[in-house]
UniProtKB/TrEMBL annotation:
One of the GO biological process terms: transmembrane transport
GO cellular component, one term: plasma membrane
Membrane-protein topology: Multi-pass membrane protein
Residue intervals of the ABC transmembrane type-1 domain: 82-296
UniProtKB keywords: Cell membrane, Membrane, Transmembrane, Transmembrane helix, Transport
Family listed: Belongs to the binding-protein-dependent transport system permease family.
Transmembrane segments: 21-46, 78-103, 123-148, 168-194, 215-236, 280-300
Name by which UniProt lists this protein: Trehalose transport system permease protein SugA
Location (main, coarse): membrane
Pfam families xrefs: BPD_transp_1 (PF00528)
Compartment(s) of residence: Cell membrane
Gene designation per UniProt: sugA_2
């Protein structure tokens, strides 16, 4: 004979285990996130208000308030690195987006259908190579005496360029390397996006006499605008964090003209041993990235509306 009390008790036990299941499964991940992310960030924020120099004894650490933030904002090299990083991010993302759309459109055309697969394989190579390795290879190619780039320019009748020794050309070299490494990602995303464009609409537009550029700007671009917004958002956040290529190619030289925010913070904290000031710079960097991210989202939302 069924006992309603036992049924009620087993039902309560089942609901308890069901409620605890998310805690059991998500608990380790949350603990790991807190240990490797939240606690270090909180400790770094604490250090940003301290006078903390790695070359000095621990007893010399003391509270200085917002002095570290004021010192970083008063540092001309840090302000210049912010300006250069923002310029760098805008330029490389614009080039990568346009170049990615062009290459993806070419690979998506009927004329290049049989050659698309080999090109896709070649395009993935820059994404598979570590940024440090890519920058090292490009640094050898940019060498003024025996570099491949200058030798090619000489064969074409142009004068040699001191790529990594002059400010303007050093910045161009960094942009070239970044575009080379990141454009394949844009191509792959855009090629997948182009598959979502309605072929019926394109055929109808061709029947009505619309040209290729008109179809692209009136049908293709509006259809894939969300993919474009996604690529721009991801690439801006990545470009603002540029570090490996800059350190390997120029190490911020000539002078400090190619220092990015990331390299400036790293050198302040670990090369000049001023951890407190470096931590303050990191949180200023966080504010800059947040402002850029919010501005990008607002612009994209406005375009969607």
């Amino acid at each position: 004979m069924n006992n309603p009390v036992i049924k009620k008790k087993s039902g309560m036990q089942k609901s308890f285990f069901e409620r605890m299941a998310p805690v059991v499964f998500l608990g380790p991940a949350v603990i790991m996130l807190v240990c490797i992310s939240i606690i270090p960030i909180g400790y770094s924020f604490y250090l940003s208000f301290q006078s903390y120099n790695l070359a000095m004894p621990a007893s010399t650490v003391h509270f200085v308030g917002i002095k570290n933030y004021m010192d970083m904002l008063a540092d001309k090299n840090f302000i210049a690195s912010i300006q250069w990083t923002l310029t760098f991010a805008v330029v490389v993302v614009a080039i990568e987006t346009v170049l990615g759309l062009v290459i993806a459109s070419m690979l998506n055309s009927e004329a290049s259908a049989r050659f698309a697969a080999p090109f896709k394989t070649l395009l993935i190579i820059p994404m598979m190579v570590a940024a440090v390795v890519s920058a090292t290879v490009w640094k050898l190619m940019f060498y003024p005496v025996y570099g491949v780039v200058n030798n090619t320019l000489s064969l074409m009748g142009f004068s040699e360029i001191n790529w990594l020794g002059e400010t303007f050309y050093a910045k161009i070299a960094i942009i070239i390397v970044e575009v080379w490494m990141a454009t394949p990602f844009c191509v792959l995303v855009f090629q997948a996006a182009l598959k979502t464009v309605s072929t019926e609409m394109i055929e109808a537009a061709r029947v009505d006499g619309a040209s290729g550029p008109r179809i692209f700007f009136s049908i293709t671009l509006p259809t894939i605008r969300n993919f474009i917004a996604l690529v721009i958002s991801i690439r801006i956040s990545d470009a603002l964090r540029a570090f490996d290529a800059v350190m390997q190619l120029t190490n911020g030289a000539p002078g400090a003209s190619t220092e990015t925010i990331g390299t400036t913070i790293y050198k302040t904290a670990f090369r000049y041993n001023n951890v407190g000031q470096g931590s303050a710079g990191a949180f200023i960097f966080f504010v800059v990235v947040s402002i850029v991210a919010v501005a990008t989202m607002l612009i994209m939302r406005k375009q969607d509306n």
